[in-house]
Amino acid sequence: MKIDAVTIFPEYFAPTQLSLLGKAQDKGLIDLQIHDLRSFTSDNHNTVDDTPYGGGAGMVMLPEIWGEALDPLLISDADLIILTPAGRRFSQAMAADFSKREHLVFACGRYEGIDDRVRQFYSQPQFANSGVRVHEVSIGDYVLGGGEVAALVMIEAITRLIPGVLGNPESLAEESHNSDGYLEYPNFTKPQEWRGFGVPEILLSGNHGEIAKWRELQAQKRAKKNI
Ligand code: ADE
């Protein structure tokens, strides 16, 4: 999979060199490129934003600069993901869909976001016809300082679903038993007793059928409690 992220803070993406994602790049499973939006400016101050038409607080990111940055990335088959708290809520199902795509392009806005004409421009039929799809995505109902952290969250959730990225593919197979795609039951490891707390007897029984039933019940209880 090819992943591009456009940002005014490339340093935010340093953690992508670590752990499974770092290894996946070494293995050639993922080609991740971070692009500095300011490198596409041509004025002395490297301006990327201006005041909003219609007034109001904050600044809006300039469409020209975003156009310069995105044009070379959106030639054919690509999903442009614009990070915004006003976007569609990111989910495990969405992560699974994106993990099957060839090329993801993350547009990380700051301030009051990116001029909406950027979304409008790349949503035109000529882009759709060449395989470019535009998505506005939010990672949750809270406002971050910008889209970088949201892009990191999405990149991590998506790339671990790509075959070969996880060290132990069984983890994925187990997760997929759950319709939401994640494990919800509580887990225990050594020692068998810690600070007076033991491990549920059933997990020591070796009875895999009963263990599976117990885990399912615990998952349901936990899900209910955490709604
Ligand atoms: N930018 C600012 N807040 C965000 C959020 N919750 N999700 C995605 N992008 C954002």
Count up the helices.
Answer: 8
Helix coverage percent: 25-40%
Tell me about the largest β-sheet.
Answer: 5 strands, parallel
Q: How far apart, in Å, are the first and last alpha carbons?
A: 34 Å
Shape: elongated
Number of strands: 9
What number is the mean pLDDT?
A: 95
Which percent range describes the beta-strand content? 15-25%
Q: What this model shows, in words?
A:
This protein is of the alpha/beta class. It is built from eight helices and nine strands. The strands form three sheets. Strands 2-1-6-5-7 form a five-stranded parallel beta sheet. α3 packs across α6. Bound molecules: adenine (ADE). Adenine binds next to β5. The site of adenine has 12 residues, from β5.
Question: SSE layout and pairings?
Answer:
Layout (H helix, E strand, L loop, with lengths): L1 E6 L11 H8 L4 E6 L12 E2 L9 E2 L1 H8 L7 E12 L2 H8 L3 E6 L8 H6 L2 H5 L2 E7 L9 H12 L9 H7 L17 E2 L2 E2 L9 H18 L2
Parallel strand pairs: 1-2, 1-6, 5-6, 5-7
Antiparallel strand pairs: 3-4, 8-9
Helix pairs in contact: 3-6
Summarize the structure.
With 227 residues, the chain is α/β, with parallel strands linked by helices.
Descriptive tags:
single chain; 227 residues; alpha/beta; five-stranded parallel beta sheet; two-stranded antiparallel sheet; 8 helices; elongated; binds adenine
